[in-house]
Specification:
The structure is a single chain. By secondary structure, the chain is an alpha+beta fold. It has two domains: 3-102, Ubiquitin-like (UB roll), CATH 3.10.20.70; 112-468, Creatine Kinase, Chain A, domain 2 (2-Layer Sandwich). It has helices at residues 3-12, 43-46, 106-120, 187-199, 226-246, 290-310, 316-319, 366-383, 404-408, 417-426, 429-432, 439-458, 460-468; strands at residues 17-23, 29-35, 48-51, 65-70, 76-77, 85-93, 125-137, 139-144, 149-154, 204-209, 216-221, 224-225, 250-252, 266-274, 277-278, 329-334, 339-343, 355-357. Strands 7, 10, 11, 12, 13, 14, 15, 16, 17 and 18 form a ten-stranded mixed sheet that branches. Strands 1, 2, 3, 4, 5 and 6 form a six-stranded mixed sheet that branches. It is globular, with a radius of gyration of 22 Å. The mean pLDDT is 93.
């Protein structure tokens, strides 16, 4: 829509408030609202002022004045406000005559990544399809005080409640994949989430219970271009959390809230297209093109640095543990969910040919994560990093059942957030190409994450909940 069409849309729907949403450096939506009576189409060009010093990763107090530039293409009616409210996702800009984009605005990084791709001549568009898993709990409580610590989640369907008077249809650990009701207690809630998403412009392909007990779920969105998919993922998380709250429950995208059961990952499907031609289809292994293989080579080569953005919490590395369900092995393979890069083989159609990078989790900032994945893949293409020649696969075996000697030959993802941040410090040149990422942004991200990591070392489990439960 044009700005004028957005105003007309708001008038036609009786809008009373306008809500401006934007993303901080860690990847959480922030917002404020103004009465529709004081909102004009000029706001799309002139911007709306806010205090950037109060936002994580943004400005110092002596340079706090910032602008939000609403994107008219993101206009929807907020599905959770009692008062009719127009919701607009915004870019962040510096004050001044030219309204220069703000270098630490994650959305700006995603825009630059798409522009870098087009200028490279390699492809016109990059498509992303994240599978963001989450838990829906009946209750959550956590506290970290000088004299005690506690972190507790609960769900009526969880196996630990089998001795509690209630349903009698509990889901055992690691047996939550596809059970029907009454074991699956969340079908109607997920359906409500899906319908709310579709009403907000998100195309959904499927929804289901996930592997873990205690309400682990997944809703699959149809792929879209990098920036639009990141926008949709932010809206997806907003809808999931608020529908759960409407039912008196709490949804979280925290990577590993339960001990001894599956964590929540965000497997990211990716493909490149030029014009009407899919670039990942070919006659090599798993019907991949050389371009796709080089892209995989870039992902696997830069994976440790990528995970400082794509698995950015201390809790992420309670999921990424060797020998368990998480894909920690830096190899590629067709159909193989124990490898970091899987090639789905559901279809032989060239249009369906894609790859799936499995280590990320949904606590990450999608604008930065998708941009980093694209930049790593493009670096692999430019440098012709062949993963086969570099011993990165294909490995068509269950890696978890290999001998210790065989496992020792396979590179693994970092074992902690500190290791991932160190990898990013040592390997960031591929992100800085074309000015897509800036040293300033990466330094701020590392600073924020090292501070959180230090806090968690002092007071681990409950503080992880308090720091990362907004994921």
């Amino acid at each position: 829509m044009t700005p004028e069409q957005v105003v007309k849309f708001a008038e036609d729907h009786g809008v009373k408030m306008v809500d401006f949403k934007f993303t901080d450096v860690p990847g959480t939506w922030q917002h404020f609202s103004v009465p529709f009576s004081s909102f004009e189409a000029d706001a799309f060009e002139d911007g709306v002022g806010f205090d950037g010093s109060s936002i994580r990763g943004f400005q110092e107090i002596n340079e706090s004045d910032m602008l939000l530039m609403p994107d008219p293409d993101t206009a929807i009616l907020d599905p959770f406000t009692a008062v009719p409210t127009l919701s607009l996702v915004c870019d962040v800009a510096q004050p001044g005559a030219d309204h220069a984009p703000y270098s630490r605005d994650p959305r700006y990084v995603a825009r630059k990544a798409e522009e870098y791709l087009r200028k490279s001549g390699i492809a016109d568009v990059s498509y992303f399809g994240p599978e963001a898993e989450f838990f829906v709990f009946d209750s959550v409580r956590y506290a970290s005080n000088p004299n005690f610590q506690i972190a507790e989640v609960d769900s009526a369907e969880a196996h630990w409640n089998s001795g509690t008077s209630g349903l009698g249809h509990n889901i055992r650990a690691k047996e939550g994949y596809f059970p029907v009701a009454p074991a699956d207690t969340l079908q109607d809630i997920r359906a409500e989430m899906v319908l709310t998403m579709e009403a907000a412009g998100i195309q959904v392909e499927a929804q289901h219970h996930e592997v873990a007990t205690a309400g682990q779920c997944e809703i699959d969105m149809r792929f879209d271009s990098l920036l639009r998919m990141a926008d949709k993922l932010m809206l997806y998380k907003y809808i999931v959390k608020n529908v759960a709250k409407r039912h008196g429950k709490t949804a979280t995208f925290m990577p590993k809230p339960l001990f001894g059961d599956n964590g929540s990952g965000m497997h990211v499907h990716q493909s490149l297209w030029k014009g009407e031609r899919p670039l990942f289809f070919g006659d090599s292994y798993a019907l991949l093109s050389k371009t796709a293989l080089y892209y995989i080579g870039g992902l696997l080569t830069h994976a440790p640095a990528i995970l400082a953005l794509a698995a950015p919490t201390t809790n992420s590395y309670r999921r990424l543990v060797p020998g368990f369900e998480a894909p920690v092995n830096l190899v590629f393979s067709q159909r193989n969910r124990s490898a970091a890069v899987r090639i789905p083989m559901y279809s032989d159609s060239p249009k369906a040919k894609r790859l799936e990078f499995r280590p990320p989790d949904p606590s990450s900032n999608p604008y930065l994560t998708f941009a980093a994945l694209l930049m790593a893949g493009l670096d692999g293409i430019k440098r012709q990093i062949d993963p086969i020649e570099n011993g990165l696969g294909p490995l068509d075996k269950n890696i978890y059942e290999l001998s210790e000697a065989e496992k020792h030959e396979i590179r693994s993802v970092p074992g902690s957030l500190d290791e991932a941040l160190s990898a990013l410090e040592a390997d960031s040149e591929f992100l800085l190409e074309g000015g897509v990422f800036t040293e300033d942004l990466l330094e701020k991200h590392i600073e924020l994450k090292r501070a959180q990591s230090a806090e968690v070392r002092l007071r681990p489990t409950p503080l992880e909940f308090s720091l990362f439960y907004d994921a």
